[in-house]
Amino acid sequence: EVQLVESGGGLVQPGESLRLSCAASGFTFSDYPMHWVRQAPGKGLEFVSSIIGDGGSTFYAMSVKGRFIISRDNSKNTLYLQMGSLRGEDTAVYFCARDLPSGWSFDYWGQGTLVTVSS
Amino acid sequence: QSALTQPASVSGSPGQSITISCTGTSSDVGGYNFVSWYQQHPGKAPKLIIYDVTRWPSGVSNRFSGSKSGNTASLTLSGLQADDEADYYCCSYTNFGTYVFGNGTRVTVL
Questions:
Q1: Within chain A, what is the greatest distance between any pair of CA atoms?
Q2: What are the tens digits of pLDDT across the range A64-115?
Q3: Which of A113, A43, A41 is CA-nearest to residue B106?
Q4: Which pairs count as long-range contacts for A40-46, CB under 8 Å and 24+ apart, including other chains?
């Protein structure tokens, strides 16, 4: 059974950093691109970042480019999102999601981890 | 990248059909057949219901169907059921190598 479990969320002050993790199981992690998607309270879904299976290419939404870094450790079946220079508008539930085997959509999602940026 | 445009809300009676539109640009919806749709119940993670414009993931009801014309994709829910009451989001791959979601549509079953 495919499982994705996010962790690392919490309350941080503006300008601070935080690292999220997503532990994957039930599939060959290195075979799949992975993604981060976020949802601000009461708002819609927003794409954040993607990384291909071997970690060689990464992609970012303009809203986080230069502040967030996506990475993965295929030996640990874990996806990461290093978030820096956090702002109030980064407050959201952050979901990790797996790429559909045929690509271009998100077939499995974690339960999400809440990041709150506030002084 | 601006969000794809969806109606804020759509409603229908049980057994009826409803359609949700999703309008983008030639850089996303119009440029690729990589439109997907997600259903999200309150407090839950999104669930993939349509991918590659018209295809169903394993286990998803064929009461959901997708289509696309130009820069607009559509999701049709047939035989509306109480459990279909949820938020629905479209999503498209973009020419930046990223993805863009729609602003979401709340479906209400009357």
A1: 43
A2: 999 999 999 999 999 999 999 999 999 999 999 999 877 789 999 999 999 9
A3: A43
A4: A40/A89, A40/A91, A40/A92, A41/A91, A41/A92, A41/A93, A43/A92, A44/B3, A44/B87, A44/B89, A44/B101, A44/B102, A44/B103, A44/B104, A45/B38, A45/B40, A45/B46, A45/B89, A45/B91, A45/B101, A45/B104, A46/A92, A46/B3, A46/B101
Average pLDDT, chain A: 96
When pLDDT is averaged across residues B11-34 and rounded to a whole number, the result is: 96
At B90-106, the pLDDT tens digits run 999 999 999 999 999 99
* B1 has pLDDT over 90: no
Interface of B with A (CB under 8 A): 1, 3, 32, 34, 36, 38, 40, 45-48, 51-52, 57, 87, 89, 91, 93, 96-104
The two structure tokens encoding residue B73: 């994709």
B45, B52, B104 ranked by CB distance to A95: nearest: B45
